[in-house]
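In response to reviewer comment 3 from the previous cycle, which asked for concrete evidence that the modeling workflow produces usable outputs, we include below a single protein chain processed end to end. The sequence was submitted unchanged, and the resulting structure tokens are shown without manual editing.
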Amino acid sequence: MAIKATQMAKDNPHILHTLACLFASTGKAKEAHDVLLRSMDDLNLDEPNDDYWYALGLIAEQCGEREIAIADYRKLAKPKTFLANQDSSYQLAHIRLKVLGADQAAAGGQR
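The workflow returned the following structure tokens.
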């Protein structure tokens, strides 16, 4: 469905980002990386933003690079409002940090 969405939306970079996350979550790290870079290029991003750090963390996890994944997830900034936090990449990154057993260190030992 995500591939079809990218075709219908003429490779919308936001949909490409979602597709990259889906690829990464299903073990297709190379495809995820390629699509993610294409999306970043379409948005003229020289550096990843929070959404892209999350996707890069997923890719690192799939490649067995636990420490890189943790570092990528920790780069996300906490949203300024409560509502923005509920479905943010930040929240998803902290879920991954818990799975990786790195959630306490991510908060400086504070929760």
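Residues 76 and 89 are 8 Å apart (CA to CA). We consider this sufficient to address the reviewer's concern, and the full set will be provided in the supplementary archive.
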